[in-house]
Amino acid sequence: MKKINKDARKIKIAYIGGGSRGWAHNLMADLALCDKLTGEVALYDINLPMAQLNARWGKRVNDCPQSCSQWKYTVAKTLRQALKGADFVVASIQPGPIEMMGSDLEIPKKYGILHTVGDTVGPAGLCRALRSAIDYAEIASAVQAVCPDAWVINFTNPMTVCTRTLYKVFPNIKAFGCCHEVFSTQKRLVELVKEYTGQEITRQQVRVNVMGVNHFTWIDKAQYKDIDLIELYRRKMNTKGEVREITDAECEKVGFFEHHRQVGYDLFKRYGILPAAGERHLVEFVPFYLKDEKTLHRWGVNLTPYSFRIGRYTSLPQEFKKKLADSKPFEVKKTGEEAVEQMLALLGMNDFRTNVNLPNIGQTEGLPRNAVIETNAYFSENSVKPEFAGRLPQAVEALTNRVIASQEMIVEAALTRNKELAFQAFLNDALMSLTTDQAWKMFNEMLKATKAKLPGWKI
Questions:
Q1: What separation in angstroms does the CA of 250 have from each of 155, 238, 259, 289, 441?
Q2: Nearest to 263 by CA among 250, 276, 252
Q3: CB atoms near residue 362 (< 10 Å)
Q4: Percent of the chain, pLDDT > 70?
Q5: What is the pLDDT of residues 243-267, one digit of tens each?
Q6: Which domain holds residue 23?
């Protein structure tokens, strides 16, 4: 018989995007494996059947042999119903139908602009950002009205735009954005520690200083005890044959989400600071790697086609139903995500330190105040305090400020329905390689394709 902690802290979590095909299941697993918390998770989604499916999934996670906690998974029919009485609000939504992501990617492609991801920057990321900001303005207003003291944890991309919108609409909101891209860089450094010292350590033992904006993050210091891990990275990079041109055949052998580390090596060589995001994200910020698909392959990165995305999106619910129909008990393990640890710290049950996205109150010099940036932060009871990170190298700072400028413009454009300002954000983006006439034509095509999610816009 499973042991359930009778002294577990009872809380309510409102999950916005409760029909999530990934993040919700991760949270359910981590909650089940935490014996210090219990309570209710209210799932809200505009796709009600998916929220209902996830409620069934949550019950099966509760019943798995590894579970040491019990949660009541309910389905809310309205956003405000979900938020009522919430201690925490978790948001991971699809901004608009998945088909709109298709138009985000395919329309720029006609004009010669490629996206490896298309959820943060580039014309695709900015069009998605318009939809996201409108959705997040509604979430912020609802939180302010229903549960103003709740902590809001955002997982939706574009991370920066979503989190910035929350603060623009409700300045006193208690919110932060979480992303796991930096974790992969820490794991790479763990591998180097083992390779060069023989020691086996965990990601959490790697201390890094994080700066930048989400998906364009950088590390200028990395240590394990007294070992300088940046020097280990440099040593590995300088190994004969490590830096090289990747062939098309090599690219074909790896998946859409894998890479060959060549972009990271080159950025480190050019700018003297370690990039700390997946290379499929990085290349959208520095388009000299994304001139065309052949150039992209030379650097060891693949495009993620829309056909793959829509295929996975539509097939996952059937896979979930098939697993739910199987009487075999679920098996769960910790996912490596940190939302539960963050909740425990905010409830005063531990202290915690990690990288998150917060408004800039001075934690990074050289970047605009109030813009949402990514640095380490210290979590304690009802408090998230960003840690001072210093300043990016001059060239990287310039690249980052350009990104921030576009994101600030797109948030303002979304909230004020300012089409001209939105277009200026598009023109300012690093991937924009068109003449203004061509750019205007493409921009209008993209807005028409996403018109249903832009109420009140003259399109």
A1: 32, 21, 10, 17, 37
A2: 276
A3: 10
A4: 99
A5: 999 998 898 888 777 889 999 999 9
A6: 9-179
Per DSSP, the three-state class of 81 is: helix
Domain-located, residue 154: yes
**Identity of residue 21:** R
Residue 361's pLDDT is 98
Q: How far apart are CA 172 and CA 176, in angstroms?
A: 12
Q: What is the DSSP string of 283-298?
A: HHHSGGG-SSHHHHHH
Judge whether residue 336 has pLDDT over 80: yes
Q: What is the CATH number of the domain that holds 138?
A: 3.90.1820.10
Question: To which H or E segment does residue 445 belong?
Answer: helix 436-449
Q: Say if 29 falls within a structural domain.
A: yes
Pairing of strands 88-91, 9-16: parallel
Q: Which two tokens stand for residue 313?
A: 């999106």
Q: pLDDT class for 3, splitting at 50, 70, 90?
A: low
CA–CA gap between residue 10 and residue 336 (Å, rounded): 23
Residue recorded with tokens 């609000």: 89
Residue tagged active-site, from 25, 180, 215, 260: 180
* Secondary element (H or E) of residue 212: strand 207-213
Give residue-wise pLDDT tens across range 176-203: 999 999 999 999 999 999 999 999 999 9
The reply to whether 259 belongs to the active site is: no
- CA dist 244 and 229 (Å) reads 22
Could you tell me the CA-to-CA distances from 196 to 137, 215, 235 in Å, in that order?
A: 49, 28, 10
Place of tokens 């640095």: 375
Number of H helices, E strands in the chain: 17, 15
Is 136 within the bounds of a domain?
Answer: yes
To 10 degrees, what angle do helices 122-146 and 98-110 make? 150
pTM above 0.85, yes or no: yes
Q: Are 150 and 88 in contact (CB under 8 A)?
A: yes
**Domains in the chain: how many in total?**
1
Beta partners for 44?
16, 76
> Would you say 131 and 102 are in contact if contact means Cβ atoms under 8 Å apart?
no
Q: Which residues, other chains included, contact 42 with Cβ-Cβ below 8 Å and sequence gap of 6+?
A: 12, 13, 14, 15, 18, 74, 75, 76, 81, 82, 83, 86
